[in-house]
Amino acid sequence: MKSLVTATLITSAMFASFAQADDSKAIQLYGKANLAVVVADEGVDTYSDIKSHASRFGAKGEFKLDNGLTALYVYEWQVNPDDKKDNLTARNQYLGVKGNFGEVVIGRIDTAFKKSQGKVDLFSDYKADIKNLWEGENRLADVINFKSASFNGFKVAATYVTEASDDPEAKPGVSLAVSYGDEKLKKSDTYFAIANDSEVDGVDATRFVASIKLDQLKLGAIYQTEEKVDGTDELDGIFVSAAYKLGSATLKAQYQTADQDMGANKTSTTLGVDYKLGAATKAYTWYSRIDNDIDGSDEGYFALGLEQKF
């Protein structure tokens, strides 16, 4: 509760200080609430629950500078209304400068590797989020992040992860990505990316991403290899997804594998439907099944939820 009050006071203070600024982009408040009823079958346990799926609020803004530059900031928090305590956690929070060259920021931010997946993961923030089987979906503090402007459709992104001052064993890491096309498939009908993590959060990983739009159908695929920096826990996997827009509804499906070097593997299969109720509101349902050959467990999750953006 104290953290929620603190964040509210910070946001209010930012709003008050920027209110007089002669710039319409000085501050923009935004967020979304996403709650669902979830029924889970975890083999030894079956239960129902109310889950928040990355509900959040934040403030962002821009200020024009000299020489064609623009200062920018983002301060965002995740809210967990389904939790009685620790219901506020930091998300992307950074400050930086952008211009014709691209953008440079410092703070807490999604790495270049994580951002390289674009919008291929159709169930991000849900049980079938690719981070539940793979490493690399990192949002880290104490980083410097660069992303270039577009050059004939090509973009370059780099994240340098500094050694945390409070961790003497921490090592710097580098996350790199090169992409082509529009990740949202709005300005182009194709998107491709290749990304690499070197000693980022203790893992080395490489990822290849592709997505394409065919009228109302969107298809996506990822191939990833990863291992710990000491060479153990080698893993490779594939990911495929498909989304088809049908009126106000979007039909979605995706499948992911994680094959370990010892022969054991995990798979995740998910089917779902989003139904648009308004410009910023949708209802959704999905079913995820996770098969784990390592311990022989099978899990199933069904959700019915509502998302409201603001």
Protein model, in words:
The chain has 310 residues and is mostly beta strands. It has one domain (35-309): Porin (Beta Barrel), CATH 2.40.160.10. It contains two helices and 17 strands. A 16-stranded antiparallel barrel has the order 1-3-4-5-6-7-8-9-10-11-12-13-14-15-16-17. The chain is globular, with a radius of gyration of 20 Å. The protein starts with a helix and ends with a strand. Residues 4-13 have low confidence and may be disordered.
List the helices and strands and how they pair.
Layout: H1 2-18, E1 28-41, E2 46-52, E3 56-64, E4 70-79, E5 88-99, E6 102-110, H2 112-115, E7 139-148, E8 154-161, E9 173-181, E10 190-200, E11 203-214, E12 217-228, E13 235-246, E14 249-260, E15 265-278, E16 281-292, E17 297-309
Antiparallel strand pairs: 1-2, 1-3, 1-17, 3-4, 4-5, 5-6, 6-7, 7-8, 8-9, 9-10, 10-11, 11-12, 12-13, 13-14, 14-15, 15-16, 16-17
Task: Describe, in short, the structure shown.
Helices cover 7% and strands 60% of the residues. The protein has 310 residues and is mainly β.
Determine the strand fraction and express it as a percent band: over 45%
Which percent range fits the helix content? under 10%
Number of strands: 17
At the fourth level of CATH, the homologous superfamily is Porin
Largest sheet geometry: 16 strands, antiparallel, barrel
Question: What structural class is derived from the secondary structure elements?
Answer: mainly beta
How far is the first residue's CA from the last residue's CA? 22 Å
Q: What name is given to the CATH topology?
A: Porin
Q: Rounded to an integer, what's the Rg over CA atoms?
A: 20 Å
What best-fitting shape do the alpha-carbon axes yield? globular
In DSSP terms (H or I, runs of 4 or more residues), the helix count works out at 2
Q: Order of strands across the widest beta sheet?
A: 1-3-4-5-6-7-8-9-10-11-12-13-14-15-16-17
CATH architecture: Beta Barrel
Regions with little confidence, pLDDT below 50 for 5+ residues: 4-13
Run of helices and strands: HEEEEEEHEEEEEEEEEEE
Overall structural domain count: 1
In CATH's first tier, which class applies?
Mainly Beta
Mean of residue pLDDT values: 91
